[in-house]
Design a protein that fits this description.
CATH superfamily of the largest domain: Response regulator
Radius of gyration: 19 Å
CATH class of the largest domain: Alpha Beta
CATH architecture of the largest domain: 3-Layer(aba) Sandwich
Order of helices and strands: EHEHEHEHEHEEEEHEHHEE
Largest sheet: 5 strands, parallel
Structural class: alpha/beta
Distance between the termini: 28 Å
Amino acid sequence: MSKAEPLILIVEDDFEIADILRHYLERSNYRTLVASDGDTALLYAEQLRPDLLLLDLNLPLRSGFEVLSVMRMKRQTPVIVVSAMDDDIDKLSTLRMGADDYVTKPFNPNEVVARVAAVLRRGLREKPSTLQLGNLSFDRDACSFSTPGGVIDLTPSEFNLLSHLIENSGRAFSRGDLLDACLSESDAVDRTVDSHMSNLRRKLANANAGVTIRTIRGIGYRLDTGT
């Protein structure tokens, strides 16, 4: 199964710096999104669930320190601070708050891309063999989904879609994203995704999985706990 390339949220109010980072990351096959203030960064982080944040500290509306603090209270998305603040106290403060790395401006863009790759690789190595969401358990080694009632019978396409959604639970994907990530070797169209999602909803409900596939208006689908 092919997966969508990692989504990197660039949180930077300097347009030129954000554009340089975006260019180098996209050249290395990462997807990017830019937020120019702290409030927008937290909104994007909550709604789109990026794989990693590149976070400036001096931001409008809400500082990078505040963004990092809120992020760490809610989830463990990797964060690399990219800041002109080169005082050791600032570096230690962000690392103690949960930042995964710290890059001082001015920077070499290629070094930033290399650090992004290193942090993401570290996260992959730390992934557990089993994921749990609600009553739904995903065993990566056995390639199976189950609940306390037993294994859920899924078609290969349903399995690919549900695997992608649970690996990125809470993050919304467009139909096009899901086609590219899960059904790229077929001639499927957007309506095929809708059909698979309808079948998955029924199977998850019948299995009392405690999760639901929600339709996000104007975007697509995401997997959340609840019914």
